[in-house]
Write a structure and sequence with these properties.
Radius of gyration: 40 Å
Mean pLDDT: 79
Strand order of the largest sheet: 13-12-16-2-11-15-14
Largest sheet: 7 strands, antiparallel
Number of helices: 5
Structural class: alpha+beta
Oligomer: single chain
Distance between the termini: 43 Å
């Protein structure tokens, strides 16, 4: 809403004193050059979010055992299949050794019975032995073969069980936390350490369900992510999850970061602020907003004398008109105008030029 101000006599005197003190600094001022055009930044929104890792694992043991080796510490980088924790597996190793010896014995017995089986088969073809004698030897051979297979299965099962006592990294990443020390007893389901992939991070936010369409356009130029108050980026991809909270009527959204967390020192759990809007792009003057239209003018355009806060707006004929304004917050060299100026109006950057007539050329005087 535009408000034309009737300036009181006392304020006029204050302005007159201000003009006398400031003086005609620029004798050849053109009102068309020292003006800016206020801009509408559209409907702006912001919300808080948390950085998370797409790939993260909280490792725990599947068996009971004492920690005999802790090979990593928090913040260590590890490769896939890197040994992280070793548990005491003395009993399993002893059983595995015995199982391997039984497998060797079964293999030796199978070798002997297989030789007898092959010999009796040749003799049977020549009818030098009876069918019953061959069947007896064949039965021994099949029994020895089954015994060897069973012993091999026992060895494989114990080897698999032994691997449970050695915790390795499921993927390459960073160790974010270690919850045990050497000598502790590991129990099934109890967290031992946490690992995440720093190259694949995202920010999770909750937005009103009416805003979901702003994240489903396929273009992310209207979305900005401020990370830890230092880094600003745009998402590489966005996922609007099909899960509406029936109480808050919000929708979860995941915004993938297009860079590695190692490059910007970003880790899961960090605070993030996501700004988005319904307009085509961000203006450099747009700050933190909450769903309202923001109009900004140059801070040098504002007149502050006594209780007066005003700017000079050029009318249709190009003449400056004093306009009372109500100001909001200031960012850098811009001041937010809450009321008094409309989008598209021209505001004088230097109020002093409002008292200086543009210089008339000699041709115009003639």
């Amino acid at each position: 809403m535009t408000i034309e101000v009737k300036v009181p006599m006392g304020v006029r005197l204050a302005l007159a004193v201000f003009v006398v003190l400031s003086g005609p600094a620029c004798a050849q001022t053109d009102w068309s050059s020292p003006v800016i055009v206020t801009r509408d930044s559209g409907r702006q929104f912001s919300t808080d979010g948390v950085v998370k890792a797409i790939r993260a694992a909280r490792l725990s043991s599947q068996v009971v055992g004492r920690v005999t080796l802790l090979a990593v510490a928090a913040s260590d980088a590890v490769d896939a299949d890197h040994l992280l924790i070793k548990l005491d597996a003395a009993s399993v190793e002893s059983n595995l050794q015995a199982a391997r010896q039984r497998l060797q014995a079964a293999a030796a017995l199978l070798q002997v019975t297989e030789e007898d089986y092959q010999q009796y088969r040749r003799l049977l073809d020549k009818q030098f032995v009876s069918r019953s004698d061959f069947s007896r030897i064949e039965g021994r051979y099949k029994s020895a073969l089954a015994e060897k297979r069973a012993r091999a299965a026992d060895v494989k099962a114990l080897e698999t069980q032994l691997n449970l006592y050695n915790l390795t990294a499921p993927f390459a990443g960073l160790v974010s936390s270690v919850d045990i020390v050497e000598g502790d007893m590991a129990m099934p389901g109890v967290s031992l350490l946490t690992l995440y992939d720093p190259t694949r991070l995202y920010v999770r936010i909750e937005i009103p369900e009416s805003h979901a369409s702003l994240f489903s356009t396929g273009s992310y130029s209207n979305i900005s992510i401020d990370l830890n108050g230092t880094a600003t980026s745009r998402p590489s991809s966005v996922r609007v999850l099909p899960d509406v909270d029936p109480r808050s009527r919000t929708v979860p959204v995941e915004l993938d970061l297009g860079f590695s967390g190692l490059e910007a020192d970003i880790t899961p759990g960090m605070y993030a602020r996501v700004r988005y809007h319904s307009a085509a792009g961000f203006g450099a003057e747009v700050g933190q907003v909450h769903g309202v239209t923001r109009i900004w003018v140059s801070a040098s355009a504002v007149i502050r004398r006594a209780d007066l806060t005003a700017v000079y707006v050029l009318d249709d004929s190009g003449q400056p008109r004093l306009r009372y304004v109500r100001l909001g917050r200031q960012r850098d060299d811009l001041v937010e105008v809450l009321s008094g100026v409309r989008v598209g109006e021209r505001v004088l950057n230097d109020p002093d030029t409002a008292f200086i007539r543009p210089q008339t050329s000699a041709a115009e005087l003639q």
